[in-house]
Amino acid sequence: MRPLLAIVGVVAFAAVAVMASVLPNGPVARSERPSATPTVFEWPAARPTEQPVPAHVRLLSGFALPIEAAALPTEEAYLPNSPRDYRAGCHEGIDFPVKAGTPVRGAKAGTIARIDSVFTDWSAAEEQVAFDAAQALGYTPDATLDRIRGRQVWIDHGGGIVTRYAHLSAVQPLRVGDVVTRGQLIAAVGSSGYPVGGPHLHFEIRDGDGFYGDGLALPELRYAISVAFR
After folding, report:
1. What string of pLDDT tens digits covers the 230 residues of the chain?
2. What's the predicted TM-score (pTM) here?
3. Closest Cα partner for 144 from 92, 95, 187?
4. Domain count, the chain
5. Is residue 174 assigned to a domain?
6. Residue 74: inside a domain
7. CATH code at position 103
8. Helix pair 142-149, 124-137: axis angle to 10 deg
């Protein structure tokens, strides 16, 4: 009986030790500019066991890629949390670098919460003033982030989940309140808001007041993204 209790005690202690582990602290080296050829990376089929996802992160799933036939970007500069030093902030979404005019499709069924049918881009002078102010503050204000995203469509999926599609060149004739289906054409890729990066779709999954993957280290972030599009 005593040997059995000892074995149970050892197993319980090991389980507690695993549950008590946390993500490593400290900065992660990131490149500001992605290379011309994205790094080949095999998306994980299972959660990394050496660095478990924290319990407070809500893993989401069931999203389709907003760019048909595209691959999930793997280079860190294309993913959330990558630094954006020019505005003292970080990236909050996933960038899909594709040609201007590429169709953008809804990642999941939902209701149009915002659609910029009429849009005027800001001037270079306005942009510089906003970036200088962000540098002085040490973070990027929400109003500046909104201008950087340019022409946008937002889809509300319920439960606090919203997807944002940004830097668009044009949108479909939809209105706030319209119901859209998964894979429905909603817009076209452009470079509005911040043309320096060239044409691409900036895609965000918002969970409540935050963005999906906020603060995760790269292995856990890649896992969380792979689950979202699984």
Report:
1. 444 434 434 444 444 343 344 333 433 333 344 444 444 445 555 555 555 555 457 899 999 999 998 999 989 999 999 999 999 999 999 999 999 999 999 999 999 999 999 999 999 999 999 999 999 999 999 999 999 999 999 999 999 999 999 999 999 999 999 999 999 999 999 999 999 889 999 999 999 999 999 999 999 999 999 999 98
2. 0.78
3. 92
4. 1
5. yes
6. yes
7. 2.70.70.10
8. 140
